[in-house]
Write a structure and sequence with these properties.
Distance between the termini: 26 Å
Shape: globular
Strand order of the largest sheet: 1-2-3-4-5
Helix content: 10-25%
Order of helices and strands: EEEEEH
Amino acid sequence: MSSNGKIMLTAEDGSEEVFFVLEKADIAGAEYLLVADSEEEAAEVMILKKEAEDDMIIYNAVEDEKELKIIAKYFEELVEDIDIRIE
């Protein structure tokens, strides 16, 4: 993760995409990132969970609905002026 609030992620197909890190949280021994696809007010956000695989650090989108709701609520309370809608 860079110090300017941006993170470059590489997908399984090798494509790269820049995300803007809005917040980081350590919850129940796991690290989560709240990232946006742009700096715009109506940006799409994702919650990523840090996982280790071999010698690599991997961030996967949280897909478990129960976990996603819990972590989204935590981020809403942590970050002012943010409303996370799960679609």
